[in-house]
Model the fold of this input.
Amino acid sequence: MSALDAIHALRDALGADVVALPEEFGDKRVADWSGLPSARPLALLRPRNADEVANALAICTRYRQPVVTQGGLTGLVGGANLRGDEVALSLERMNRIVEIDAVSGTITVEAGVALQIVQEAATAAGFYFPLDLGARGSCVIGGNLATNAGGNRVIKYGMMRDQVLGIEAVLASGEIIGGLDKMIKNNSGYDLRHLLIGSEGTLAVITRVVLRLRPKPTAAATAWCGLPDFESVTTLLTRAQASLAAGVSAFEVMWAGYHDAVITNLNTLRAPLADAHPFYVLLESVGADPARHNEAFEEFLGAMLEAGVVTDAAIATNEAHARDFWAIRDAPGEYQRFIPDHAAYDVSFSIAQAGDAAQRCEARLRERWPDALVMTYGHLGDGNIHIVVDVPGMGKHDHDDIDRVIYDVTREFNGSISAEHGIGTKKRDYLPQSRRKADIAAMRAIKTALDPLGILNPGKVV
Amino acid sequence: MSALDAIHALRDALGADVVALPEEFGDKRVADWSGLPSARPLALLRPRNADEVANALAICTRYRQPVVTQGGLTGLVGGANLRGDEVALSLERMNRIVEIDAVSGTITVEAGVALQIVQEAATAAGFYFPLDLGARGSCVIGGNLATNAGGNRVIKYGMMRDQVLGIEAVLASGEIIGGLDKMIKNNSGYDLRHLLIGSEGTLAVITRVVLRLRPKPTAAATAWCGLPDFESVTTLLTRAQASLAAGVSAFEVMWAGYHDAVITNLNTLRAPLADAHPFYVLLESVGADPARHNEAFEEFLGAMLEAGVVTDAAIATNEAHARDFWAIRDAPGEYQRFIPDHAAYDVSFSIAQAGDAAQRCEARLRERWPDALVMTYGHLGDGNIHIVVDVPGMGKHDHDDIDRVIYDVTREFNGSISAEHGIGTKKRDYLPQSRRKADIAAMRAIKTALDPLGILNPGKVV
Done:
């Protein structure tokens, strides 16, 4: 049984239109955004429905042919990249919205539909789909599930895991599991959905899903705050969560080092406050009932200024003004322009320890590289901190050493080496820094139970 | 290797204080509230910490000795009951609150602590722990996790699954997995937490957990509404979720049959509205900022009356008044007084189909038992309906036939046979009504992967 036999069998069963050979799919992009090495697939499978996926995987199992499932290819950890002995299974043709159920508040979609299409369909139906990230136009729902995507509004709405009611998926054997369930509560046996979510394509291929829709917010308020110390940042967070009736929809903290570097290096950005502060917070609340909502937001911010929790603040007077605040927080999209070779981290801690952890990371980095540029920011309401590091003349060796510094501190604070991006191949060797040996053994046992031949996304995660 | 050898080895390793023999634990209750058959355990293990649990399970694995983990024994499906060849592992001594972290908003507890103790500790620390159910004084956190408990406030705060940050557990082998993580976001490998939640003690013994605390609500409003039809009920739900800024914290629907039966049979209850209506809804909103909150709630209800969505309504004027409304919804605690032999169901559907599904259940029951008492009510915001059935002179045979009617309709509507109570032994034979054959095979493969000898809660769920 050679890979050639597998591809012949696939082509016989599914046709040349579904199973393309390298000379047919040409130079089509088949690697993610990580920049990590990737090979070309032996064939590119583009099934049109769950039955074709099932058929393809059953054949791959018969021939022990490895398969890498690919969605929008916007991942950052090499999770969809190839070693060279695999076929790629692209969900690009499974990109339809199946149904919107306005009474149940659900949208049923194929796994290859782009996140932005789902957001737009929800809005058109009078609802809101809250998951949002920069890659919204390219990333697809199946990939959002495979990586349990996060983003800016997790603090109010949760991660991708929290948006899902039903998942239909195909196991390596070609058997279909799950379904298009719309029940919010379902305690009938093990929750296979949650096991598949975040498993990065190693346990099954997700084919269709039922997502939960939320009411469309009709009120929003956004403020940019300057704060004196990290304790004030956590105080502001706790008080905002207790006082703002609609809840906090974004709480993005930026250390001064981040703020100053992006304002200095990107001339499209302007500092919202006149003076410098050790910490900045972008605070946002969304809800219903604009008059009461905005009045309460202003009252709250006034109380925080009076209490000295916030030193200075600006409230966005309109949407364009709010977008200017968000542009500072979204500056990482523009890093390439001034630090093309930077190292970037996506770690999480308890909220209480995030400040100390970030401080220790920076101190350790400066011991070794006194001139390092260290930019720290993130979704503090979720304990999720991004750290971006640039050292003069950075090479591969420095990059590995910086990895070690960050992940050592992460272990010391019992944090996670991957808050939202996943493990892929990039962080696989560091997984023991975040998980016990027995956890990893249990993951491997589950992997073997569901994919005994190891044909699904081999070499990823575990 | 006999069971006797196992018990000797356990007693040698852990001492007589931890491993009690039948003559020592006497007539202590060791069965749940289901009334299903249960045997006495060969020994009762009461470990004091995770290491003792690990030690005990390693010995049980060595001797292939089955173990049933027991918490508060308040389950309704036989999930903690015994066949007769098992030892019982009680978490009653692991009942301490380990830590409250007010900055991170977390509480760390041992798995044997009662739900009500956690609620009280949260309140004392200025927070709120939202999960709530009638058995709060007896049920324990480990059991709430093992069954993914629900309750009345799922619509705003989610189920037990949504309250958990970290889980430490012991596998059948005696290895400890997981830990006391406080990260809200953690995408480092498979999420073993979510696999254990709802697995009813068949995959591991949960020993300690980190739970998420919420801000304590400072405002609450409660209304009792009479509605003309099911469509109006779902309209009220959708509009309330979109319009009430703080969100809906309870949306309990009662069909007229339920309302009339409990008001007639329980003389402590009084109907809140003068006229009869086909449907009643208990609507509650909790949040911050009482003045704005209550004013908005009244405005919303006024608009619903004007639109004819709600025919008549009463707003609770104080807490005692609100408790009177809740007493009607909580009447199931008193059923034994007028229908001692009833059959009770906990099913879920999409919100849109819940009305038709309930109607079909009632129609099918009446075809066979024209005089049946059918009481339908539930957490409609979660698609979760409870159906209680009493037929004249009900015997075991009737009970089985009623099961079949309800679960057939559940399958026809693609619903779940267990929204919140779990499977245990009671619903095991009906699991194929809610889950695919391939799902059940996958669950069995996972069970075998994590508990190869099948010593944990044998015969339950799968």
